[in-house]
Amino acid sequence: MGEEWIFDRIRKMHEEIERTLREIERELFKPLFDFEHRCLEPLHEVEETPEEVIVRVDLPYVRKKEDVKIVATEEKVIIEAKMSEKALFSDLVTYGRTSYHMYRKEILLPAPVETKKAKARLRGCILEIRLPKKHKMYRIQVE
Amino acid sequence: MEIELVKISPLPKNSTIIVGLPDIGLVGAISSSFLIKTFNMREVAFLDSPKFPPILVFHDTKPKAPIRLHADSDKVVLVSEIPILPNQFTPLAKKIVSLVEKTEAKNLIMIGGIPAPNRIDIKKPKVYGAAILEEDKEKLKNAGIELFKNGFIAGVYASILKECMKKKLPAIILLVESYANYPDPGAAAAALEALSKLLGVSINVDPLLQQEEEIRLKLRELMQRTVNSLKASSKEYEYAVPLMYA
Fold it and tell me: For B120, which of A32, A61, A126 is closest by C-beta distance?
């Protein structure tokens, strides 16, 4: 029993580092489209405050909130959105000389969140999702 | 290692040199490419260096270097289709300053974005101006552009401004509130309206605003690469507060 928890902790840290490195590698070198599913990958940013995790996603040509589908767990959000107009890449060989009409993005969150209390808004084709953190910070009174 | 200026045709003298490089919100890159198209500016030169990535870009079957100079009779525009890497900031700044001196340019105007955390709620982004010479600050005021009073400017534009400061050369930077991580044609339009007032030249930004979504969609890759390169260019300083009694 004794020191097993230390090895367990090291193993978990190792897994976490590997997961982060894989994510960085994926973000840096993966093309921003999925030809097989005719999906584009949107640009996004994740901001963390003491109370919440804020995810913003740039979705040009997505004009109606009904065209956005968001699924969230404690650790990640998956966004799918349909464009109002097809994006043509007919002159680009690397894009398969075709058109795309969907976005899809899976985003890992920096902290566990309460999905049921999350709110989202679409403004100027930018989707903003505010997810309250599961473990909030509490104020400690100074005596 | 020095950057080579490869001339295609003579560069105009006494011109205004406008620099729009990939930076926050790609404001500079969007603005410069829009100016080239709007004023039908011909390619006059390109920049090359063994330190640049091995990239060539084809536009309508024509091969082009990614960092180029376009011109008409009184304006020269520097445009880049690739992010400028931090190890190229100083060589590029020196090359631009040498260009200002050799062509006896009247002005050097840079266009860039300044990250605004509430950009999603801003309809008309505000443009600030900073200048090296006092007379240029007057020009900014006369054009109704608010002066950038306190704060850090980091990255390639800081290197260019510093080289101009050393040589007491005229240099102006227009900084517009922008998204940090998304291409921002709306911010570029606001910057171009300010440039229009500063130069006394009419620039119709309607086509830029009409193509806003297409630009945002098609510049995702350049934006992503630019964001990665900005992380290594001290951009975080722009969020810092400078000393109070300097």
Answer: A126
